[in-house]
Amino acid sequence: MFFHDLRMEKELIFERRIDSDVEHELHMHDLLEINVLLENRAEFRLLNESYAGEPGDVFIFRPYEPHYNLTVDADKPIKWIMVLFSPSIVRMIPYGYRLLYPFYTAASAPHIPAASFYAQSIQAAARAAFEEQEKRLHGWESKQMMHFIDILVHIYRYSLDCLSEKEQAEIETGVVATVAYILRHITEDIDIRELIEIYGKGKTNFYTGFKQAVGVTPNQFIHRLRMQIAMYLLKTTDKSITDIAFECGYHSIHYFNKHFKQYRNLSPREYRNRTKKAI
Asked: Residue 208 CB: number of other CB atoms within 10 A?
């Protein structure tokens, strides 16, 4: 098993993938992942269990969850659409933090079968989103975002349908509640004591439960989100680096530069210059 350190240039990526591996080492990363199986049978392998996949099935993977997609028949490669995204992207969606619930709870099954209305709707939206990316007509990014939101909503609704009324009432508690709070206040000062109070089960349980669900400590999660937002702003706006630092919740440009260089191995200015040249 290995950690795949994905430093995305964007907060959202759609890729069409093909693979013929029948065996492969599991990998993990800190992004949220959705796989929509298009052709042939697959095995979606996790650390302690596996799921048989048929065309049309949808699989979601939590951050830092060891996984890999394998083909069942070596002579029939699997084809799928992979969606990778940072949780920071939901800050642009009204009540978007709720849509992350399936990715931060063990109560939500990762497999949505093809026969389900939800899987069919997700597959249609994923195909449409990828087609927008391929054609790149005017406004394609906005259309792709619309399809992406549609995918998240269907995954969220499917996860709710799998819960009892009591479990549904408890969704915005525990880790999900703390992640939601962080996302709503990511550009402000975040007091860890406030997160512990929201979690509601004590300091030790908070740190243990948070890392188990999210994969990193609360402070690491906060800094990663801020760095992902900073990269987006550096690439897509002409705001000054100082303004971006403050907008991402840093009160010291030195502290911001230090964290950014640790995350990207580039200074914010170097990153901006490099990404601008690549456009």
From this structure: 12
From residue 53, alpha-carbon distances to 14, 39, 72, 111, 175 in Å are 20, 10, 9, 8, 29
Domain co-membership, 15 together with 80: yes
Q: Which domain holds residue 236?
A: 220-278
pLDDT for position 7 = 56
Count: domains in the chain: 3
Report the C-alpha gap between 189 and 201 in whole angstroms.
22
Question: In the 3-class helix/strand/coil scheme, how is 212-279 assigned residue by residue?
Answer: HHHCCCHHHHHHHHHHHHHHHHHHHCCCCHHHHHHHCCCCCHHHHHHHHHHHHCCCHHHHHHHHHHHC
CATH of the domain at 21: 2.60.120.280
pTM, two decimal places: 0.79
Q: Find all residues with CB under 8 Å of 239, minimum gap 6, and list them.
A: 233, 247
Q: Tell me the chain's radius of gyration from C-alpha atoms.
A: 19
Give me the phi and psi of 184, to 5 degrees please: -70, -25
Q: What is the pLDDT of residues 173-195, one digit of tens each?
A: 888 889 888 888 888 889 999 99
272: tokens are 């901006």
Q: What is the mean pLDDT of residues 263-277?
A: 86
Residue with tokens 């040249």: 277
